Amino acid sequence: MRDSPLSATPYEVFGVPPTASTDELRRAYRRVLRETHPDTGGSAAEFHTAQWAWERIGTPEARAAYDRGATRSEPAHEAWAAPSARKPRDSRPLARSHGHPGGWRRERYLSLIREWAGRGVALDDPYDSAFVRSAPRDIRHVLADALAEEATARLLSELGIAFTIWHDVATDAAGGGPAQKLDHIVLGPSGLFAMLSEDWGAPVTLRKGEIIGEGIGAGERPLHALSLRARSIARAARVRFTALVIVVPDDQTEESLTVVGRARGVPTLLVQRSRLQDLARTGLVNVPLMGGNELFDVRTRLSAAIRFV
């Protein structure tokens, strides 16, 4: 996710300082291309990231424009600002939505960034990109996950009125608490889905039925955590989920949709964000669609059981 608070700047992609000469930058670009090219055993995601970075600073004109923009922080600020500061979207029939996507993590980020900045320090703009990038990674990760939740919510809202969506749902997993929430629960004719929206700032892979990667901390088990949270809701509402889904930015996994395995008989999926609407609309192969009476019953049970963080 190249506009993520966790993403590297073009200079960081090439491993050079912003003061590097044109020749130094060109040599670094060629080196990174050789190291990341898929034909020589490199990563396709990293190769495309290098190309993206070169488009931003590869010519004097592009580099000057990027440096001016980076100084003003306008592009990143527009993407990271709170939703109320953005331009309204066009009006279309939307899914029924409940809760505040990304709301808890936004509040958590603001609390952490103010504490990190220090007592008595005037914080004019907590979303200024230069300021955000100077913060510790764990604080930037909180903001990145809030943005990921909001991006997923925007896509889900476009599914239409046949769908009902709950965001920031509290669970009793691992003793409860806001950090144990489900980011999204999606109900529609294709089934009932429990979702987490994640941005780890780096590509992820699979090992022994779990998601691993450079941005995932030691001991973290994202799919296991999702399973525990979904099980809490399933018990409380007396429903069964069709699938458990972790949604990531497209550049963090090579496959658009991967069936990782099963958790107590429920399929677990790793899905690129651009594939999410298709999954929600079509569902899983060999899983029958929900009829009207079943949809109404499941929606009623969930509405009675769900609490928000």
UniProtKB/TrEMBL annotation:
<dbReference type="InterPro" id="IPR001623">
    <property type="entry name" value="DnaJ_domain"/>
</dbReference>
<feature type="domain" description="NERD">
    <location>
        <begin position="144"/>
        <end position="256"/>
    </location>
</feature>
<feature type="region of interest" description="Disordered">
    <location>
        <begin position="67"/>
        <end position="102"/>
    </location>
</feature>
<feature type="compositionally biased region" description="Basic and acidic residues">
    <location>
        <begin position="67"/>
        <end position="77"/>
    </location>
</feature>
<feature type="domain" description="J">
    <location>
        <begin position="9"/>
        <end position="70"/>
    </location>
</feature>
<dbReference type="Pfam" id="PF00226">
    <property type="entry name" value="DnaJ"/>
</dbReference>
<dbReference type="InterPro" id="IPR052276">
    <property type="entry name" value="Diphthamide-biosynth_chaperone"/>
</dbReference>
<dbReference type="InterPro" id="IPR011528">
    <property type="entry name" value="NERD"/>
</dbReference>
<dbReference type="InterPro" id="IPR036869">
    <property type="entry name" value="J_dom_sf"/>
</dbReference>
<protein>
    <submittedName>
        <fullName>Molecular chaperone DnaJ</fullName>
    </submittedName>
</protein>
